[in-house]
Amino acid sequence: MSPDLTPPRYNEEAMRARILGLVFFVVFFALSGRVVAKVTITDATDEGIACFKIVTDTATYFYDKAGAGFTSMIDKAGTDWINFRPQGAAPDGQSGWFRGIPNMGLNQFGHPGYTGATSTTSDAKGVALSKVTVKSTKGKWSVTWEFLPTCAMMTVHSVAENYWFLYEGTPGGAVGSDDYSYRSNGSKAQLDKKWAGDITNTSGAASGTEWIYFADGKVDRSLLMIHDDDSIVDQYYLMSPMTVFGFGRAASGTGRQMSATPATLIIGFIETRDYATAKGQIDAVYKDATNPGTPTPSLPDLRDDCDKGIRDHRSGSAADGDVRAKVKTYRNAK
Length: 334
Ligand SMILES: [Ca+2]
Ligand SMILES: [Ca+2]
Ligand SMILES: [Ca+2]
Known about the structure:
Helices cover 21% and strands 28% of the residues. By secondary structure, it is α+β, with helices and mostly antiparallel strands. It has two domains: 8-34 and 298-333, no CATH class; 40-290, Beta-galactosidase, Chain A, domain 5, CATH 2.70.98. The protein has a nine-stranded antiparallel beta sheet with strand order 5-6-7-8-17-14-13-10-11, with helices on one face. It has a four-stranded antiparallel beta sheet with strand order 1-2-3-4, with no helix packed on it. A four-stranded antiparallel beta sheet has the order 9-16-15-12, with no helix packed on it. Helix 1 (8-32) packs parallel to helix 4. Bound molecules: calcium ion (CA) (3 copies).
């Protein structure tokens, strides 16, 4: 047998690399065992209307295909926070027909119960996915909804006329005197109190946006809406028994004040009503939805990238820092 002429220093480095590789594998497979959040889309009927039903970890959404708006937004406890009801002598007003999200183009588009929009998805039905995308169009109106485990985000591509983003619904199943909202300027208001004025953002959460959440008085949960920051008036009032909130809603009347495209609206549930706690959750939802500057890679892609990084590290072609970064990215995405 020939003697090993490899310098001792080389062997030390090779051993160190092997140990590091082993550590990364242990960390990687420990992380791989965690549950991956998923989103599924199916065709369904809600309130007698043809919808997409999108089920996520935090909410179940029913999206009216022809109306391009939500008939229902159901929380983990099975409670509907919209309660759109088209039955009865339509229009059934604030007890049903007026309700919905985003209700963006009055008598035109983006409202449950409206007709004429075409909504499509190219995602597989009934299959767990990391994200689901639905596109809706009607004439010049064009939007895309992306459904993630934590929220749903609409991007408005084009509009036929001025619009607003409304929440007309029932926090916690019904509006109560114990329900309230918090805005990103720190203002709290009971839901029987009217107010108007552009929402600023002094919260430090989801900067570059203006946001509001509607808290139920009994359940520690809130419905969140995040919109691009602007200087356009926003308004809330109670049209009992439903909320009327609008980004871009004039202080009185039905003047729709927004015209910008592209524009975004994010909606979702947060599992708190406390302002300090909500800020952290809202920031996380916003980062999740936007991941600024980079496209959102799928979890399987991140996992493959992580796996490749570990292999490269073991073969000596990847630096410690690189493979650590890949593991961290994968872990954060989960
Ligand atoms: Ca309530
Ligand atoms: Ca603003
Ligand atoms: Ca505004």
